[in-house]
Write a structure and sequence with these properties.
The complex is a heterodimer.
Chain A (H helix, E strand, L loop, with lengths): L2 E5 L2 E4 L5 E8 L5 E7 L5 E9 L2 E4 L6 E6 L2 E6 L8 E8 L9 E2 L3 E5 L1
Parallel strand pairs in A: 2-11
Antiparallel strand pairs in A: 1-3, 3-8, 4-5, 4-9, 5-6, 7-8, 9-10, 9-11
Chain B lengths: L2 E4 L3 E5 L4 E3 L1 E4 L4 E8 L5 E7 L5 E3 L5 E5 L4 E6 L8 E9 L8 E2 L3 E6 L1
Parallel strand pairs in B: 2-12
Antiparallel strand pairs in B: 1-4, 3-9, 5-6, 5-10, 7-8, 8-9, 10-11, 10-12
Classes of the chains: A mainly beta, B mainly beta.
């Protein structure tokens, strides 16, 4: 069966520090991969999605970047964190090549920038 | 592009009462609809999904939703809620694309079940 791992679960970082959140998927090949952010009291905002290695689409301009160095690995990064980067970050995957899909989510990372 | 509107940001109800969480969508093409639940500090779990066929969809934990194409709605219902149903609920829509789909989420509805 497929599983998705996301870490760390919580993170407190000072303003201006770098960020690296990692997500890996097991049990499937060539998935679509997503990074979502959930700010306090708000819905889910799609940040990045990837349909293959090295292929990243950005949904909103921001202080963050994403990379997909391996088929089932998706990394969210920042060179210098801002206070506004605080939030709950969720990684997700879905099947490729289907007319429809549903997304399967990791347990999330609570990022607090201080 | 598709969009989703969840009409209520917060819904407080008493235990064993019925509940309806409302969701409307907009899209120029056929859509697939989903409801997800999120418990505090956790990821999202799929409750149910509509892909085709019967417009009444049954999901886990006693929830069901009805797809209404003419009203572009996909409301979530449960006839009798429990304390444990307290969570945030997200409606989502995806459209058919050749390279897989992206899910667009609503803003979420916080369901609070009181004793």
């Amino acid at each position: 069966s497929q599983t998705i791992h996301q870490w760390p679960a919580t993170l407190v970082q000072p303003v201006g520090s770098p960020l690296s959140l990692e997500c890996t998927v097991e049990g499937t090949s060539n998935p679509n991969l997503y990074w979502y952010r959930q700010a306090a009291g708000r819905g889910l905002q799609l940040l990045f999605y990837s349909v293959g290695i090295g292929q990243i689409s950005s949904e909103v301009p921001q202080n963050l970047s994403a990379s997909r160095p391996q088929d089932r690995q998706f990394i969210l990064s920042s060179k210098k964190l801002l206070l506004s980067d605080s939030g709950f970050y969720l990684c997700a995957w879905s099947l490729v090549g289907r007319g429809w899909t549903e997304a399967f989510f990791g347990q999330g990372t609570r990022l607090t920038v201080v | 592009a598709q969009s989703v509107t969840q009409l209520d940001s917060q819904v407080p109800v008493f235990e064993e009462a019925p509940v309806e969480l409302r969701c409307n969508y907009s899209s120029s093409v056929s859509v697939y609809l989903f409801w997800y639940v999120q418990y505090p500090n956790q990821g999202l779990q799929l409750l149910l999904k509509y892909l085709s066929g019967s417009t009444l969809v049954k999901g886990i934990n006693g929830f069901e939703a009805e797809f209404n194409k003419s009203q572009t709605s996909f409301h979530l219902r449960k006839p009798s809620v429990h304390i444990s149903d307290t969570a945030e609920y997200f409606c989502a829509v995806s459209v058919e694309e050749t390279s897989g789909s992206r899910l667009t989420f609503g803003e979420g509805t916080q369901l609070t079940v009181n004793p």
